[in-house]
Amino acid sequence: MANVGVKTVTNALLSLDGFSSERAMRGFAELMTHVCQLYTLGGSSSVSQQEGYDLAESVLYVLGFFGEEPEVAVSLLESEDVVGAWTERRKLLEARIPEVMSLWRQVVVTMPPFRNIALRDTLASIERLPNCYDTFFAAHQVPCSIDYPLSAPVSEELRGLDYVEMWLAQLLEEARFLARFDLDDMVEHLESWCPDYRGLLINLYEPIRDRFA
Q: Considering the entire predicted model, what is its pTM?
């Protein structure tokens, strides 16, 4: 299992100062054993290399390793109850889901009803996030299909719920701008600018901004 996962966390830990990497690694090994047993329904703590990598990424994401303060994640790995610390962090992550869906609802209400397929399908996919986001084994993954392009792409360094939240926040800003203008005028401009604007993977904010702002 965990050659790949251990390499991931080792490289991350060694990039930080002021901690005992050996102690953190012991905590990581204990936590990975627990998560692997959950993953295999108690049947084993051994999984494939790819599964181990994915589970390690998920564990590190839940602990906050890829956030602004990875030192916090290190302290959690060094704690006496590393499984309890991971469980609490996972609950905090789940508690953020309603906040992200609140952003989604604001986008849906604010965005003018353009008939762009990518925009429609992306928002429909995000609507299913509460039912498909796996904080146990795939917290680092984006649990939906996000095909609609923003005017400025979200950083690929963001993972999981952080990526979705940032993506929705930026789309909401674009939607608020677009909502300032008459829908028929915008559609007329889009049709002249790109006759197949409904079917292509294109951002709708940029041509409207360039024309009406």
A: 0.89
| 22 CB-near residues (< 8 Å, 6+ apart) | none
> What is the token pair recorded at 213?
């702002």
- Residues 24-69: pLDDT tens digits? 888 988 999 999 999 999 876 678 888 888 999 999 999 998 877 7
- Closest C-alpha to 135, from 8, 7, 34, 35: 35
Residue 9 has pLDDT above 80, yes or no: no
Q: What is the dihedral of CA 205, 206, 208, 213, to 10 degrees?
A: 110
**Residue in 162, 187, 153 with CA at minimum distance from that of residue 66:** 162
Q: In terms of C-beta density within 10 A (0-12 exposed, 13-18 middle, 19 or more buried), how is residue 37 classed? A: middle
d(CA 51, CA 77) in angstroms, rounded, equals 21
